[in-house]
Amino acid sequence: MITTRDNIHHRLGGIPFGSLPKTFQDAVTVTRAIGIRYLWIDSLCIIQGDKQDWANEAGKMAGVYQNAHLVIAASGAENPEQGCYSSQRRCPYAVSVPYYSSRGRKDGLMWLSVPVQRETSPYWGPLRQRGWALQESCLARRILRFTPAGMIWRCSGLMTSERYSFAWIYPEVWEEILEDFSDCKLTYKEDRLVALEGLGRAIQEVTRDKYTLGIFESSIPEQLFWMLEDAADEAEDLAALPSWHWASRGGPKIFMTKDTQVCERSYPQFILEPSGILKAQGFVAECGILSTRPGRADVALNQLLLAHPYLQHISPRCIQTPSRPAQLAGIAVFDDEGYERVHVLFLMQWEEYDRWVQDRINLKFPHGKGIIKTLYLVLLLRPSPAGEGIFKRVGVGLVILDPESDGISATLKNITLV
Q1: What value does the mean pLDDT take over residues 118-142?
Q2: Given CA atoms 168, 172, 173, 176 in this order, what sign does their dihedral have?
Q3: Does residue 187 form part of some domain?
Q4: Eight-class DSSP state of 324
């Protein structure tokens, strides 16, 4: 059920309860039960197929969800006809046990079961796959989710359900939100930035960190270092966005820096223009690429593959130094096809990487061989035909050599990324 220009006058006159889809009916019932007078449903309250109304209302959606008394999420419903309440709860290994009152009298029975992890998760279900729903979930002050395993309540500091309860803090790292969002689906790929605009503006209001085109300016290097988790689908590309932008490509992405708050951004200085052009001053080197994976003797590079197992599934290649004789300098991960030579822009350095590997991953190497003390996160670039000093992104890399070492010999340059 939707509102259009053709039926808006009928909608304003009232909508019979019986004509509503089951999910909408359940939402109305919940709203009335808690004593709230108004209910906002996007497909009814935004005129569908009307670009002007959509443009007006899309910018207000952040305020709608932030200021709502309660957000209702039918997390387990495939469509509006299924309703909020699941009629097929699965409780494997369920047993009934007697319930006794405080006076020791048997007062009935209760059922105990081992929970199905995916079904008790607040992110389980079809709603989890909708790109627009992520922003709505983040912005809501209070949210009541209906899942096949029961109801789940979440507010700013607590999550509780029919099965468990714990303190709750939503992810504060933007790259973690982007990674979750990249795994969601959108009906229109052009909504990729719009679907996060309200959330980005809300974060900007709190942090005072300038937000432009899906990017927070205080953490540009972290937002540049993304990898495609699966093979790219050109049909999902957004040609209007620059190659370096996370939203320029569709599909799930990995943001390696989301849980590594130990990287120092001591290299590039960035200026992000409103047009999406990114100007950078940083260390750049031209390196060769081997089309093979690291051999068994390349202990240091194999350490990277062990510490970051997802690298093994996205066709990593070896970066070679430009020096002669050439030596292996790191791992390259391309967005699409590989290249024999690339320009490398150093983004961040990861100090005490060896401690992170040993303490967190618990990887041990004999006699300390191959232990990487400092790791460098880099952007892989190719010259653009647009002009001298202009580059396009083609991938990312992990480098184990200092940019100013004899092998790399990177130089400080001013470049433009498009």
Answers
A1: 75
A2: positive
A3: no
A4: S
